[in-house]
Structures
1.
Amino acid sequence: MASSTTASSQLALALGIPGLGGLLIPTDAATTTTTTAEGNDLHADASHPVLRLAGAVQHYEWGGRRGSSLVARLAGEGDDGDERPYAELWMGTHPAAPSSLAASGESLREWLGRRGPAALLGRDVAARWGGDLPFLFKVLSVARALSIQAHPDAALARALHALRPATYRDDNHKPEMAVAVTDFRALCGFVSVQELKDVLRTVPEVRELVGKEEAVKLMGAKEHDGGIGVRSYLQSAFTNLMTASKETVSEAVSKLKSRLNIESKVRTLTKKEQLVLSLEMQYPEDVGVLAAFFFNYVKLNPGEALYIGANEPHAYLSGECVECMATSDNVVRAGLTPKYRDVQTLCSMLTYKQNYPEILRGVPVQAYVTRYIPPSEEFEVDRCLLPSGESVTMSPVPGPSIFLVMTGEGKIEADSMLDEGKAKEGDVFFVPAHTEVRILASGPGSMQLYRAGVNSRFFS
């Protein structure tokens, strides 16, 4: 048996990382190796290391600026002269922006492939999803509205990727869940039949673009007729609105803005009316300003979550959240964006369900830890709020996890760690399958962490 120092050094070399750096390596790793059927060397007696990661920042136009963006703060990037928007922090293996090992700069995706995914991701996960993480973990800082959009189901994703790979860059579906970190606002799903009738009665600019025939059908629809007829009428009306000419839309938005500004002097505008005026300031003459009347206006408090399934319309409006999804970047857009719009695809793919979205508040799984479990098998999210001086042990799971320290400081302990495991705001860790992790909060305030992992139901 080699000494612990020699074993650690050899493991570091085997991992292809010069020096120990930010890598958390076991102190008692044996050097005995075996070879898998795929030819990957595995350390038979060694615990697989917990890795410090660097996430990838995305600078989309709707993101917050450096001084006000949670993404910028967590990434530790930028300087006083940096005017770029900091929109998203990606943590995962999606090839568009994979995370990298903090110690070496090697992408996590490449490292997993080189080391053998079965041992690190768990046999069931590797058998189902191959060498990639099945989930993509993000932080979003939304300073202005994102596009009106939907994500394709698996079959449509494959078709779109085959047809237009430059636009739809992978062939996977993208169910997603957002957990609010601050007050968070969104549009999500179509409003009820009754609310839609109220829109057609009180918003002449929308009624005009929908068309008289479709408006009459919707006004005569019953709330509880099984929904088949209503969905057909809704699809026709919404498609008419979204495909109206640019000139017609521009005139309608101008009329709406003028009318609401006048009426605001004699009455209090509704929250939806105030919203559309705000959207018009962000995206002048955009059809999305009018389309907002069709969607539920949702506000999440910190700790509340929203799940969005395939082919459901939505648009994030403001606030900051952690988001987890299947590993995909497929987005079909149709409004409130300078990016490519695929209006016909969006209008044809939507479910046209008229339900207010369920607000998820999570389930306590132990002291200080709340779990959000969506219907999708690829992911779940844990939220840990740990008071200073307290600790919590996250039991081993048969799949991989990514931990993010949102606020506070403390330590992360695991059998496979060599350094002190100091953890502070913005630190990101990859935790292999079957690894127990203990978290201790030691700073002056509480420690807030989030864990993304494979949905527990997948293993049951």
2.
Amino acid sequence: MKIFLILSLASIFCFSLSNSIEDDVMCLQGVKNSLSDPANKLSSWTFTNSSVASICKFQGVACWNEKENRLISLQLPTMQLSGEVPESLKYCRSLQTLDLSNNSISGPIPSQICNWLPYLVSLDLSRNALAGPIPPEIADCKFLNSLILSNNRLSGPIPYGLGRLNRLKTFSVANNDLSGSVPADLASFDGPDFDGNGKLCGKPLGSKCGSMSSKSLAIIVAAGVVGAAASLFIGFVIWWWFFVRSSSGKGKSYGFGNGGGFKGDSTWVELLKSHKLIQVSLFQKPIVKVRLSDLLVATNNFDSENVVISSRTGVSYKAVLSDGSALAIKRLNGCKLSEKQFRSEMNRLGQLRHPNLVPLLGFCVVEEEKLLVYKHMFNGTLYSQLHGSGNANSQYGFLDWPTRLRIGVGAARTCLVTPCLSTTLYASKH
């Protein structure tokens, strides 16, 4: 019975050993077949010899001992190898060191690598063309002392699980495309181990995550200055367009043309002509009704020669009716009141009588055009008397200062009823 038990255990051991040897051979065969070897560095790997420890003499291969084909190390650096990390490594389960550095290995790092090589102590895949993220499953390699993944094209964050590898003494992910923050448990490694990753931050790199570099800050400040300047420029253009340009456009209506109307803007005169039969609303009913056509004739179609004065609120024209009576017709400029409001205001103003105000005799509304009818003042306006301009018979300086003072006090006592309309002060005869 004892002899049978011993023989059974021996047979099981021999079978396991045989399977282990076959697995390691399959591992190396798969590595040779899956990698491109333009320099024939792996040409010495021949598998015709089935003797014990035959594969241990292969270049870059080391076994646990010389009496069995159980691999402990596979080091193939700088051999111009290309292709992806061989899946056949899963048959080298006893492997502790894997070095494929300084080749042209591409593709991702297999997420199953720690399942393939559970006893891995040293992993060097640096200076290749590996891409994609660092698989978090590498944290399952509990015996790792050295992990070197520098000089690849790896992207994404550094897995926080790597900080739980208590045996890790050598670590480098320099010169990749990694981003995010360095795990706090890896902060004991030096800054050069993380350099070359533009979007990586953390204590080893001397930069706080969420803070900006001086270059980024300079770019943001410059962009802010340019944006502010552009906003000011756009604001100035809008202001110029709506105020200066519109004001200058209104100013053109005060300019003089050759014949009827205004220079560059005679459309409003044409509008009045198309409604010339409209009656002028007068507060004191005359014997003969006055129509808009009478005002057009009396002002020679609002010819510039008949302009008495132009102001911010409008232009006043001298109008001589067929009976010889003289009126002042003021075309309002920019009155925002609706027609109903405007008529209401006019009816109220028509009742006002003040010694310092030119009496409002009537008005006329044609669509957006609003005309006021005043009594014509032959002595001119207060402005012309004070400055010696227009129809004033005096020159500047004719009025003495006591007279000017009385005029100022009288003007201050005058009540201007509506902001839309500008009234004209009487010119003093004294």
3.
Amino acid sequence: MAILRVLFLMAVVCAAAHAAKDAKEDKKKDSDAPAAAPEGAESGPGGSLDISKLGGSGDGKTDSTKAFDEAWAKACAGTGKQTILVPKGDYVTGPLNFTGPCKGDVTIQLDGNLLGSTDLAKFKSNWIEILRVDNLAITGKGKIDGQGPSVWSKNSCAKKYDCKILPNSLVLDFVNNGLISGITLLNSKFFHLNLYKCKNVTVKDVTVTAPGDSPNTDGIHMGDSTQINIIDTTIGTGDDCISIGPGSEGINITGVTCGPGHGISVGSLGRYKDEKDVTDVTVKDCTLKKTSNGVRIKSYEDAASTLTASKFTYENIEMDDVANPIIIDMKYCPNKICTANGNSKVTIKDITFKNITGTSSTPEAVSLLCSEKLPCSGVTMNDVKVEYKGTNNKTMAVCNNAKGTATGCLKELACF
């Protein structure tokens, strides 16, 4: 039942991401003209806007939404480098919709903490959404705290598929050339960071934290995005540490520590029509601790889209008591919402696992569960040495319909 629950939650997350995608496509119809300069905006190049001097209160109680809205309007209308300064303190806000294009480059310097309102009636969708902005930076040592514990009990997605989605904490839509560094994302109501239609965004030295049993609190999710770099980041949540959705290309994940959570996942793939390929993904020098999956690729057997997942490299990965260290699941079918033994349309090929070491909490350290109709091809396993840490069973691999080569692996894990 626990496994079914995990699969069920992942399907919900995928549905939420695609629902958000439809809404965001509608936003593209808005004018692309730069935001008009509000009264009092600085006309010269460069400027700094201090939230506490615009009426924001860092007392952890007073709603400071208006101050942030004013700061964004002035910063986005200003030229040169504009900085929104959040000084030390706890600033409570409702939904923040930061929309561009902007005239200059905008930096949000987060020295204090942002607290998401616990009044769900204020939110139509997400908490902080940044739309159509180029050259954006969010830096500092402060926290973006969704205050999720106060509302997680209202998440009904474990009980029904058609559930109300709680607000994501930080959403970047159509953002080009972005940097998120140093900050902490804490206890999101739903996803912590969601990237959609973004290009050349780097997440570096970020911490993402939520309890292992918190519902649908993915650390970082991306879809239809290119050139995304996640570097030296620590993630522990109640769902995927990182989830890579359809349409992702040129993804680099390096130096990430994951746990608790569901691992680093690609997919689900094929759930909806018109999904795009996933290609050129590198996961390197990462550590996974006590997660329910390690590195995972999952697709629906009755896929609604024809797409390809290819050119993935997983290298120098340390597994520490991970339940499914290496898993390709082309028969993903959570809670019977799909048709088993369907006509798979997802191709998975050219996948390399190199120097994967450590321990598994289950005997099946490697699971390649590929489709009879479209087998996995070009799978390379070099120096895969993950051992079951228990005593009653031996380390093993389950490899169905997978074609490739294996060198330097534990003999129990040499699928080919």
